Amino acid sequence: MRMQHLDAAMLLGALALATACGGTDTKSPETPAQPSPASFSEQVTRGTEVYTAHCSSCHGKGGEGTAQAPPVVGPKALPLDPPSGAKVRKSQFVTVADVATFVVQNMPADAPGSLSEDDYFAVLAFDLHANGIELDKKLDGAVAASLTIPRD
Predict the structure, then answer these.
(1) How far apart are CA 131 and CA 85, in angstroms?
(2) How far is CA 49 from the centre of its chain?
(3) Could you tell me which CATH number the domain at 4-25+38-148 has?
């Protein structure tokens, strides 16, 4: 698969997934299973809902960041190395798959690993879209591994 290089907005889009806050277990028996999104566009739609429910309380309604969490939309997010003083993040983010791995293991902060795989990728798709990134295929593990986060 051809490596795709994304601009700095990619860094910001992936950050929301990497630092998602709050939320509850969406895989509980009370929550009916949703069909898997079939396209990037469908992931963005679902990701909007999941971001609002699980991420916006920390990262802001528009991803602008708050005192609790860094921005996920804009030019100042997702450096290669963990920020100084980072309490949880200890690894580098080279690809979107690196971010996804971290997020599944650590987010939401109050319930790590509690979202479905579809929901984690939907939030990432939402964030990419919010930063001006569009994909012509559904975002999944293989696609995420092919997306290198560029560095200035």
Answers:
(1) 26
(2) 13
(3) 1.10.760
